[in-house]
Amino acid sequence: MNPRSVIIRPIVSEKSYALLAANKYTFQVHPDAHKTQVRQAVEQIFGVRVRDVRTMTVKSKPKRRGWTRGRTAEWKKAVVQLHPEDTIELFEGQETE
């Protein structure tokens, strides 16, 4: 699997920003990707050393809009811990004034 197809997008939320202090980065990944593929993809794309990968499937939630009922899509999330000397600049956003 291509590394660019394994990593779909970074997750930007309050919880993911709290994990940055522990050098952990959160990504949405392909549902069929396993930990080894996620590790290799992050190392190739960002040029960093990965120490640990934790994956989880985010379950779908029921949603309503008027009479219409539906569900959100299930997706897979990976929390990647890097070597203490490495960082990913993508997450180090610019401060707004």
Write a short abstract of this structure.
With 97 residues, the chain is α+β, with helices and mostly antiparallel strands.
Strand content: 35-45%
Order of helices and strands: HEHEHEEEE
Q: Report the biggest beta sheet as strand number plus sense, adding barrel if it closes.
A: 4 strands, antiparallel
Give unreliable regions as ranges. Answer: none
Provide the fold topology.
Layout: H1 3-6, E1 7-10, H2 14-19, E2 24-29, H3 35-46, E3 50-58, E4 62-65, E5 68-71, E6 75-82
Antiparallel strand pairs: 1-2, 2-6, 3-6, 4-5
Q: What brief labels describe this structure?
A:
single chain; 97 residues; alpha+beta; 4-stranded antiparallel beta sheet; two-stranded antiparallel sheet; 3 helices; globular
Characterization of the model:
23% of the residues lie in helices and 36% in strands. By secondary structure, the protein is of the alpha+beta class. The strands form two sheets. A four-stranded antiparallel beta sheet has the order 1-2-6-3. A two-stranded antiparallel ribbon has the order 4-5. It is globular and about 50 Å long. The termini are far apart.
